[in-house]
Structures are given as C-alpha cells and as structure tokens.
C-alpha cells in the first residue's frame, strides 16, 4: 500500500450514504490513491463494516477516519483521528480521543494511527456545528493553526475542511507556504477536475466526497486532474 502520507488524491465515502455496486466499483478502480471512510453523523459499526466489506473486494487502500468510537473495527489499512484545532470545546480537541485511547490503548498499533489537525472553515457544515468550530477566523488565524500543528503539536497532517463548500485557494496556498513537514490536506466542495487541479497546486492531498453522490463522472475525473498537477514548490 502506498503510505497514506504519500497520497495525492482520495475519495471520502460516507458510510451513512448510499452508493450502488457499480458506482463503488468505478470509485475503487478509479486510480485514486485510497479511500477514506468517514462522516460526522449516522456512522455505526454496521454501516462501517458494510462499506468496508464492499471496498475490500478491490485492492485500493482504505482508511477509517474515526468520528464514532463504537464504529472502530479491524480490517482497515489505518486509522485517521481528527482533532479540531479551531474549537474551544476541548472534547473535540482531546476529550474523545483521550476516552478512546483509555478504552483501546492496549490494542492500538500506533503505527497504524495518524492524528489529523482539523481546521473547519465552513460554519454550516455538520462537523463545525457538532464541534463548535469557529469558522469565522481569518487567514492569519489559519496560518497560526498551521504553524501550531507543525511546530507545537508536530502533527503529520493539517486538514483544511470546507466540507460541502469550495474554499478559498488563497488560504490553502498561504497555509502551504508555512508548512514544511506537516502534510496539507484540502477537502470541501470539489465538484470536478478544474477545482481539484486548482487545489492540488497548493495542497498535498485532495479529498473528494459529496461529488461522488451528485455527479460521479465529474468526481472520477478529479483523480487524473490531481495526478497531472504538480504541487507548487
Ligand atoms: C480493535 C482496533 C481495530 C483498534 C483500533 C484502535 C483505534 C484506531 C482507536 C482509535 C482511538 C481514538 C483516538 C479514537 C478517536 C475518537 C473520537 C470520537 C474522536 C473525535 C473525532 C472528531 C473531532 C470528530 C468531529 C467530526 C469530524 C471532524 C469528522 C470528520 C469527518 C467529516 C468532517 C466528514 C464529512 O462528512 P459529513 O460531515 O458526514 O458531511 P455530510 O454533510 O455530507 O454528511
Ligand atoms: O464532501 P466534500 O464537500 O467533497 O468534502 C470532502 C471532505 O473534506 C469532507 O470531510
Ligand atoms: Mg455525513
């Protein structure tokens, strides 16, 4: 498996949403670097296992982005653990994570676990509402979170999350300029290849989610668009 920290393109499949077998096959065979299974609400052990079993018919790598401890199961190539940096509600920074590590710590292979610093920038998305994220921050705030992620917390990943809406390429570009070792992930509102290529100039990893459910052919075209785009030095 190509290591998650080298992925350029990923599709995020929401276990609470429906995708028929033909569509899933096209997603898994698209040439994407991998699939992330994750969502904010409606995530259960049953629907995570169901989508995992269907994805495992193909050779594509698959990571679980944990938002619900009861839905953690073996069988994934690794686990992504979000911590929301732009909330004042400590439960979503370290509280749920602490409780889950108390429960699973003995079983955990930390080589398979990748912490993600999330900065949520769409105030209307479910993740922002759930976590009380302050999405009204300006670019300087985003850059401060990026520097904190890399230099204070030494996080391997900073995720600029615009879930459901297309974010500002300028902010992504500015964040990319202050990051060196921490990988920059962009997700939100990518509907087709042009937007994917635009963000791929600034972010290390591009995530495409909802477009899969609304316009599959356009979503699939984002794979090639990202692969053909070099990130700006
Ligand atoms: C036995 C075994 C396999 C052991 C493995 C052990 C292991 C890996 C343990 C992990 C332990 C751990 C630290 C767990 C973390 C627990 C937890 C609940 C953390 C909180 C995560 C968090 C901050 C969630 C908030 C929401 C969030 C950021 C979600 C990310 C996903 C996201 C934004 C998806 C977008 O989709 P959605 O919001 O659903 O959008 P739609 O509106 O389109 O639906
Ligand atoms: O669903 P979209 O808006 O593509 O967002 C993708 C991903 O960043 C969600 O966590
Ligand atoms: Mg969802």
Automatic annotation (TrEMBL):
PANTHER family to which the protein is assigned, alphabetical: HEPTAPRENYLGLYCERYL PHOSPHATE SYNTHASE, PTHR40029
Role description: Prenyltransferase that catalyzes in vivo the transfer of the heptaprenyl moiety of heptaprenyl pyrophosphate (HepPP; 35 carbon atoms) to the C3 hydroxyl of sn-glycerol-1-phosphate (G1P), producing heptaprenylglyceryl phosphate (HepGP). This reaction is an ether-bond-formation step in the biosynthesis of archaea-type G1P-based membrane lipids found in Bacillales.
UniProt similarity note: Belongs to the GGGP/HepGP synthase family. Group I subfamily.
Pfam families named among the record's database cross-references: PcrB (PF01884)
UniProt-recorded name of the protein: Heptaprenylglyceryl phosphate synthase
Residues annotated as binding sn-glycerol 1-phosphate: 12, 159-164, 189, 209-210
Subunit structure, as described in the record: Homodimer.
Domain of life of the native organism: Bacteria
Reaction catalysis annotation: sn-glycerol 1-phosphate + all-trans-heptaprenyl diphosphate = 3-heptaprenyl-sn-glycero-1-phosphate + diphosphate
Cofactor or coenzyme needed: Mg(2+)
Organism: Bhargavaea ullalensis
GO MF annotation, one: transferase activity
EC number(s) per entry: 2.5.1.n9
Keywords linked to the UniProt accession: Lipid biosynthesis, Lipid metabolism, Magnesium, Metal-binding, Phospholipid biosynthesis, Phospholipid metabolism, Transferase
Chain's gene name: pcrB
Residues where Mg(2+) binds: 14, 40
Pathways per UniProt: Membrane lipid metabolism; glycerophospholipid metabolism
InterPro entries: GGGP/HepGP_synthase_I, GGGP/HepGP_synthase_sf, GGGP_HepGP_synthase
């Amino acid at each position: 498996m190509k290591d998650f920290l080298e992925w350029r393109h990923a599709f995020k499949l929401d276990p609470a949403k429906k995708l028929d077998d033909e569509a899933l096959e096209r997603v898994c065979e698209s040439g994407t670097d991998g699939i992330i299974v994750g969502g904010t609400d409606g995530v259960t052990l049953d629907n995570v296992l169901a989508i995992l079993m269907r994805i495992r018919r193909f050779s594509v790598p698959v990571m679980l982005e944990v938002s619900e401890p009861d839905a953690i199961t073996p069988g994934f190539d690794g686990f992504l653990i979000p911590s929301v940096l732009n909330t004042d509600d400590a439960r979503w920074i370290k509280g749920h994570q602490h409780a889950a590590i108390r429960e699973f710590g003995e079983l955990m292979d930390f080589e398979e676990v990748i912490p993600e610093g999330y900065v949520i920038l769409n105030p209307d998305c479910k993740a922002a509402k759930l976590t009380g994220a302050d999405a009204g921050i300006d670019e300087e705030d985003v850059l401060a979170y990026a520097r904190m992620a890399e230099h204070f917390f030494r996080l391997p990943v900073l995720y600029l999350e615009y879930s459901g809406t297309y974010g500002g390429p300028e902010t992504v570009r500015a964040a990319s300029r202050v990051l060196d070792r921490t990988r920059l992930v962009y997700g939100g509102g990518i509907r087709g290849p042009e937007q994917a290529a635009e963000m791929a100039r600034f972010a290390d990893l591009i995530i495409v989610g909802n477009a899969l459910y609304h316009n599959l052919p356009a979503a699939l075209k984002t794979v090639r668009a990202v692969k053909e785009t070099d990130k700006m030095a």
